[in-house]
Amino acid sequence: MSHHLVELADLSYAYPDGTEALRAVSFRITHGESVALVGANGAGKSTLLMHLNGVLLPQSGAVRIGEVPVTRATLPEIRRSVGMVFQDADDQLFMPTVYEDVAFGPLNLGLPPAEVERRVSDALARVGAEGLRARPPHHLSGGEKRNVAIATVLAMRPDVLVMDEPGTSLDPLARKRLISLLNSFEHTKIIATHDLDLVLDVCQRTIVMHEGTITADGPTLEVFRDEALLARSHLEKPLRMQACPICQRPGL
Questions:
Q1: How far is it, in rounded angstroms, from Cα 41 to Cα 224?
Q2: What percent of the chain stands above pLDDT 90?
Q3: Within a domain: residue 98?
Q4: Which domain holds residue 168?
Q5: What is the pTM of this model?
Q6: What is the pLDDT of residue 2?
Q7: Consecutive H or E run containing 14
Q8: Are 204 and 32 in contact, with CB atoms under 8 Å apart?
Q9: What distance in Å separates the CA atoms of residue 210 and residue 219, rounded to the nearest whole number?
């Protein structure tokens, strides 16, 4: 299942104003891994994610999905394999109705109408948004938009699921449903988030970024127990790992 692999080799990227967002970043993610990408604002997480499906292309170094390098020529193939949920749901919702937004990708794959309907219904059901299919996206709440944006990606049946701050705008019940959904996705997942408690529930491996570089890559609990590392990266332990402020009973 090489198409589920994600590999970065010395990836670097600077924005036009000269800001170095990524500096020689390398890692390899294999089939079925669930990997968190954490770091303070400006660490380079979103820039890295946008290289995984060709929103941005490498200036130096390389990105590969399976055996396919991410280049301008390979974008159609890459985007069939890598489904990305952007941080701002409005970047993904542009059709008159929710149904049309979720159906957009499958229709562009040339799937027959019956299969498109199945995919749309299944994706909306998985995020608990079946009742929204006839609604205009711009009339939805922030949490509803987030769920529909996730559904647009699930309808494509990607091999690799990439999510930028997926818990944003979700109430506690929707967040719980998101965690269940992520744990049910059997293929490769890469999740950039500030919600380190969500990482504990979903990701067995965590990559820490700081100022465009990787400062740690390992089992999630080991990474989060390294208080010096977290402090250098401007992060704090997940709430479940912190001592109770009243009784001082230690966390995980």
A1: 18
A2: 77
A3: no
A4: 2-89+159-241
A5: 0.89
A6: 61
A7: strand 6-14
A8: no
A9: 18
Residue 105 domain-assigned (yes or no): no
Residue 68 backbone dihedrals phi, psi, to 5 degrees: -105, 120
Look at residue 120 and tell me if it is in a domain.
no
Residue 15, beta-bridge partner list? none
Beta-carbon count within 10 A of 148 CB = 25
- Map residue 27 onto helix, strand or coil: strand
Residue 103's region, left for phi above 0, alpha for psi from -120 to 50, else beta, is: alpha
Query: If you count DSSP H runs as helices and E runs as strands, how many of each does the chain have, helices first?
Result: 9, 10
Instruction: Count the domains in the chain.
Output: 1
CATH number at residue 170: 3.40.50.300
Confidence band for 1, pLDDT divided at 50, 70 and 90: very low
Measuring CA to CA, which residue among 153, 146, 137 is closest to residue 174? 146
**Alpha-carbon Rg of the chain, whole angstroms?**
18
Q: What is the rounded average pLDDT of the residues 45-64?
A: 95
Q: Are 123 and 151 in contact (CB under 8 A)?
A: yes
Domain membership of residue 141 (yes or no) is no
More confident call, 218 vs 87: 218
